[in-house]
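PT: before anyone asks, these are the final sequences, not the draft ones from last week. 578 residues across everything. Please model them as a single complex and drop the result in this thread when it's through.
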Amino acid sequence: MRYKDNWSETEEKFKLWWEGKNTGRPLMRVVGKRKTSSEPLEEIGEPKTPEEMYLDVENNIIRYRNYCKSHMFLAEAFPSFSVDLGPGSLALYLGSEPNFAWDTVWYKECVEDWEEFGDYVYNEDNYWWKKHVEIIKKAKQLSDGEFIINIPDIIENIDIPLVMRGTENLIFDMMDEPDLIKKYLGQIDELYFKYYDQFYDIVKNPDGSSCYTVFSIWGPGKIAKIQCDFSAMMSPAQFREFILPSLKKECKKLDYSLYHLDGPDAIKHVDAIMEIEELKALQWTCGAGKPDGGCEDWYPIYDKVRAAGKSLWIQLYDGNYEDWVNSAEKLVKRYGTAGLYIIFPDMEEEEAIRLVEKAERDWK
Amino acid sequence: MDLMELSLCVQKGNAKKTKELVLQGIEENMNAEQILNEGLIAAMGEVGVKFKNNEIYVPEMLIAARAMSAGMQILEPILTETGVKPIGVAVIGTVKGDLHDIGKNLVKMMMKGSGIQVYDLGVDVPADTFVEKAKEYNADIVCLSALLTTTMPSMEEVLKAFETAGAKDKYVFMIGGAPVTSNFAKQIGADIYTADAATAAETAKDVLVKKALN
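LR: through. Structure below.
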């Protein structure tokens, strides 16, 4: 890998992290902005439209290569490139249409009536599926082995019917016709892997290892972030009835899985999530306007993850360098360094070097 | 018709049975306002309390609101005919740039369940539309919702638009949404922040009752 010095060491650290083990300091994503680029940057303008920002893979690869040249990937940070059509592109392959915006992609609701819609079926001729495969293949070719191409954020489970049917309609459907929704969830469970496996085959590394979208995770096999953002709306009983069976199936099929827990309203499901034997780790997203992963308010979540013997993925971003170091120090003190992955924001070159030195020295 | 049975029907979200019981009450010449207050509104009050205590969650709240709405469809024409008025009027919407609607819809339903007439302006609502509609519907309360930190500034724009129109003092401004806080409400000059739909409805009702007493 061209822009990463300690890659084999990083791979070993990740293998241990997934198993809740570690040697030395915790895993850390540390990216420093170089004072001077390692190589001359290529001139490239900004995208003119949101569509271009998502679909123009040639220029996006040039922008990412410039990022790699102007940053250093320290500790377990590594260069990897995401080709996402928004969060949950499985909805596109199954019939939804995208609405590209600068900060995200919305999917248009397309299920007026389930009976009229019929079943979820694999359609190899779907425009967005073909387009996504095309641009991922292109990205793989253009990356030329210099950095990894991530498995895209296709998303599974009930979050797909959610965007296709709309929140309120889906809630009513779950109450009025629970068996119908369970049938659709079963179809999504199957289809998710039909699409996932094809992407995995395109982007996997020669040794079969892979990376998953924006969460900076690598694993020696099929890996994925799994989720249920809709769980924020659900009761614990509904979560167990509708969602947990699908999550268990997913984790069994994957070699390494990370659960993305999104926002305070989802915390009520942590106990159920921790019951998934094959799940390896939990990633906590604190929610809009809430303090970052270093806040002690979130420790009860981490305590439960630890008690279940799973690994933690925690992101720090509030305040400045000193705040990140203080928060990380508290986390290391409380949880040790085994199975702990701390994500730091991009920082200045000298800060990044100083942080890794401190971690090597003090966080063992 | 047993008003307690009606209230329990609404709480369980049984829309069909709710309709039947309301119709039965009307046939038995029960007072429509009494059916509304002691059956439907009382039920939604219970639902609000259970929601705040984490005894029930969003789905149960939504189906209860749907059942209440089914009952209201029968009662509304009779209430209008007999001159029974809502306790107040609110306009509600998700601010410009934000397409999330579930929180806004919950607040709307709970407010309706408190006897307030609510006009839903939808999502991605421009500041000027709030001004125009609050005036058109002669609202007492303007409710603003946002789920994203990036769309919170749109709330301030709405308040500024009311100020520019010289209408800020005519209404009570309530705001809510995941990233919103009471400090943010103070900062932008909103009157009230509430953390959940049940509290929003309860607070709105208090505001309107106090207004009626003054």
